[in-house]
Amino acid sequence: MKDKVIVITGASMGIGAAVAATCVRRGAKVVLAARGVANLSAVAEPLGDSALTVPADVTKRADNELIRDRAIAKFGGIDVWINNAGRGISRMVSELTDDDIDQMVTVNVKSIVYGIQAVLPHFKQRKAGQIITVSSGLSRFPFAPQRSAYSASKAAANLIMASLRVELRDQFPDIHATTVMPGVVATEFGNNALHGGIDNKRMPGAQPVDEVAQVIADVIEKPRAEIYTRPQMLELASRYFSAEDVATIEAGFGGPPR
Ligand SMILES: NC(=O)c1ccc[n+]([C@@H]2O[C@H](COP(=O)([O-])OP(=O)(O)OC[C@H]3O[C@@H](n4cnc5c(N)ncnc54)[C@H](OP(=O)(O)O)[C@@H]3O)[C@@H](O)[C@H]2O)c1
Which CATH code is given to the segment(s) 5-250? Predict the structure, then answer.
């Protein structure tokens, strides 16, 4: 990790901010991107010269290119790009509007394609690099039906990443594409969801954000294709995807929040 240059989108709070602090502690330089300038500065301040902030909206292709250019200008290159920025929603499938779906696809799918396309030419030139996308356990299991369009957008993100992995495998074996799937994490994610919702920090069993940051830092040190931030989720995945009828497993999940 020492002296790696790591771009982190959605770094003004939550998982992104925790990943930044963890990676700097392990010797990395970080480039922090998000829209909220004051929050970005507050995250960067304790990290000193190891951090650069780039105010950016990742739903805009040009802003992803700006993040890349500012990172290379400051630190001379990029080793890891983390597509972490994202947003939830609180609407059942029966309630979704066109705008709800468009917003989820824009912030959770298009943004990661823009990030990938911004940094990939640089990684191809260096024949090395790592793209990490922070997806969600909800990309695999319908734990939370009110997150519907969010879950679908994260499932799309997983397949973008898997397709990228296969695209690069033969010609660029040292460019890694990694998907990270957290469960419920104690951040402002719930409060920031489109149409509001439940505060994640008050949900029983919410994973501490520093634990998630350690998992992400570890996967930079030892790249792999996919990782759940809790091992129980891998065990659930093996049961869910091998069930003859997934409804038997879904029967154990909660329904809509009351
Ligand atoms: N918390 C959970 O339970 C959980 C579980 C599974 C997966 N995840 C995923 O983990 C990632 C981080 O979530 P979190 O829990 O840290 O949420 P969070 O506390 O709400 O933070 C979200 C971050 O994304 C940034 N962001 C949102 N829209 C953006 C945009 N258009 N352009 C640039 N930055 C943007 C926000 O900054 P600004 O508002 O300042 O732009 C903020 O820094 C997300 O992809 C989320 O889907 C979270």
Answer: 3.40.50.720
